[in-house]
Structures
1.
Amino acid sequence: MSMQPRLMLVVSPLMEHNPAFDRAAALAKAEGAALHIVAFDYLDGLATAGLVNEQALEQMRLGYVERHRQWLEEKARPLRKLGIDVTTEVTWVERPLKEILIHLREAPMDALIKTMDPESWISRFMFTPLDVQLLRECEVPLHFVNTVTHARPRKILAAIDPFHRDGCYKDLNDRILAEANKLASSCDAQLEVIYAYDLSSITAAEYGFGNGSTFFSSTLARQLYEAQGATFQALAERNGIAAEQRRMIMGDPTKVLASYAGAHDIDIIVMGRVRYDGLDKLIGSTVESLLYKMPCSIWVIAPQPVD
């Protein structure tokens, strides 16, 4: 007997409804999943209030947490009437990343859902927002909810890169397509698969063709394009993606994916992320650069842990 899927919705410490509530409820209903809604509360003004003693401050914190708990229960009641198994939790914690990861270890989830918090580029440069921290550290599928036109997604786009130059992510594309297929099937949504490729930044030496400063000739570029096309078609074929669902578009992946999603009313784009070591964390990845640019929501798949 298969176990019931479980989704975790992380909500703001502020008691406000946002699109992630509607998306989480729709996905839980479509997948027959249990939904755990958790708020990690911490308000700077309350936490650092210096005009009251510690006992009074603790009572204020407890009072806020209890009000938030009651507020979440009010949000949960109509979902339970729809047949969704909903639980709620409120915890007071200053830095939620560690607590979120502990929650996921202690009670494994099929996906973590969260509203994408807007951050200025200056803020992202100076600090690492929680969304980016989760993107780098979370091992379960991670759904960042942006604007929501349809609570239950109607159009899903899976973005893949079948031409990795090492073997670290050889299974990631199949996992992306498996997750996208499952999501599309449970939501009765349309699925497309896109490979945005960019030959402009590739040098011949990366693939063993002479001097590293030498750019591809047109012949070599065509050969590489054909090789990538064949790999893409084989990948799609073994994952049951029909020919009419496949898109291979040349251009900078960040620009291609954002433009395609906006032009085709995509609700969710399913992508993979790479692992970070040392200074690589400063560089980021395609999915990280898209996080604040996409006109739709993002579903991120992490690579399998390296043995």
2.
Amino acid sequence: MIDSLLRQHLAGFRASRLLDVGPGYNAFGRIAAHVTGAGSVTYIDCNPDVIAWQAEECRKEGLTAEGLLFSLEPAALGALSGQYDLILCQEVFEHLSNAEAILTGLVDHLAPRGRMVVTVPTKGSEQWLKRINPNYMKNDPYGHVREFDEAGLRRLLREAGLQPLVFLPTQPHYFIAHTWFFGTRMQVEESTGKILTKGIRGFVSRKLFNLSKKLFCATGFERWGRLLPRNYFVVAHKVRPDE
């Protein structure tokens, strides 16, 4: 549903420069580029395979791509030049012990009238997955090291100088699919989100994902998002001095 939320909540917003931080193997940067009219996307990732894959996918869709290969450290953000109209930072901050410094550094590169899209897993869903799988995220070098409830995420945004325009609990189909996924000890590449486990478990995981998504869409996705929230979806802008 993140793709639909991007289309809905970025509709009418125009961007020339777009930055996608930690994109993994997803299409969100390209979706946002098409919605906002941006002709190119700049990607930051620590995995060269991700950068190469995103560049090729952009080429297929008539977009140009710039790849910046580095780990997210405050000093490394100096490699960014100028300001961006739109910054995507999705499923990133839960991996960072220095999330506050990184978000502040990114906001420094956000244009005055720019927007930032942030998604993170909800604290409740993270604790649920740890309950059904005590080894969840324990031994992965790129695993989750932070948890965010609504108050904590709002505080992170506020202290970085951002004000939410949209703040939604969402992704209930991922709550269902991840319960199976991590409950049955499937494996995922945490730095990219790439699923490593195949076979019957992978088949059932895909079926649960697709069927639950159809059910929730047919019966009220926003209501299910409040009941079984896997992620928060946020669109924010810079706080102006007079706000």
3.
Amino acid sequence: MSPAAVLVTAGGPLLTCVGAVRAAAPDGVRRSGLPGLDPGCLAVEQASGGRPEPLGDVFALGAVLAYASTGHTVPEQSELPPGLRRLIGSCLSSDPSARPRSAQELLRELVSPAAGRDLGGEAYPPAGTALDHAAVPLPGRVVAALAAQSAALLAAELPSAQQPFASPQKVH
């Protein structure tokens, strides 16, 4: 999972690709540097050739959440919104045992009333979701990437009766 695997729709974000790490290389083979794998979303144990495990998926989900809130998959702790620092930081831990135990546990923490509070107890506005239709401010870097992808899609040539297949266009 990486930011590139998230499809932003009118109904909210959808994950489109899970399991790329497993498909990219057999167990025991280093996965870092392989095409299609975002190094910032790859857990240390998987990058070094370890078997893909659910806690690696939690790491990747943490990297996607970090990207959505900062524009970076490997942000500095200070870049993260205060109410999400502890949660995203735990997902991105190099120690798998320090990560939330499952995506379900992570989801429970995200939707709990305490999710919008930092360790000092000061309240922050809760993160909006597709379920409550609240406005979600995205970092400029994320907005720029979405705009570039939208522009490339709009500029793509559609097949016509005379030319059934257009030349492939690379989307950045």
4.
Amino acid sequence: MSAPADSAASAASPAFSVVICAYTEDRWEDILAAVSSVRAQSRPALETLLVVDHNEALRERLLKEYAQGEDREQGAGREHGAGREVRVLANAGPRGLSAGRNTGIAASRGEVVAFLDDDAVAERDWLRHFAEGYADPAVVAVGGRTVPVWASGRRPDWFPEEFDWVVGCTYRGLPPGRVRVRNVLGGNASFRREAFAAAGGFATGIGRDGDRRPLGGEETELCIRLSRARPGAVLLIDDRAVIHHRVPGPREHFAYFRTRTYAEGLSKALVARSVGAQKGLESERRYATRVLPAGVVRGLRDAVLARPGGAGRAGAIVAGVLSAAGGYVLGSVRARRSGVAFSPAPVGEGAHG
């Protein structure tokens, strides 16, 4: 990647590449909406990269959607204009979100790489708020706030806000404002390019693989590695950088809640195996000992006051904790028996083709 002509201006206002990973045509309209939200930013992105996870039919369809002129012939999938360039890429690694993100990082050209879920739309000032965080050269990552958009039109009465991470959203217990954190949340996050040079990319083998494995934790593992590689690094969440994340109907049911919390336990076992339990579970201990007990008390109080769903929310918190704990125990045993270890994937300096 060529050095910017005015490095001071670049540091104050870095160029953003936005990576959106997609895997299924079932989300076609969501993918188009996600791209449109990036192209409508008040602070334009340099480019949007759509990384398709081993789905040639979807990749071809997206190439046709965004290809124009000579780019159509070359299969580069570009559409030009300020903040309007769209490139469609195939995941160059194994199936899964981590490898897809690494593909996007390697192909991107911006000083900062931002990630947006394929079933989410960003508010107009999303990138502007991210950029403000990077005015401090010590900041290497900035995340935002993710708001659920329930398919039914409203939050299920029984669904506790403390567990909104189950549906990929910001949960009760995270501090408000612009605050320093251990890790950002991957579906609404950004990193300086130098972060990947220092720590490597996302570790494959951790994280989601389409709908087949509702795992997570890949961004936590990366952020912990990054903080170790760069001890003075600052990671922030700015709750003004908002995206709206669609929650499909099946994910509003308790069966998915139970499956996802169990899978999170498995994921945390993998993260702890990779970076150690002390850092891998540092935030989770505070969450489990402070945020969740307060949530149970709140739910029981609502039940006493005859408010809808109070008992259900209290019960869901307890069930979620037990399910996650069960997944963590089993995942830890499996990891020890298999001797599995994860290495950060190397990422390139950028591909301009």
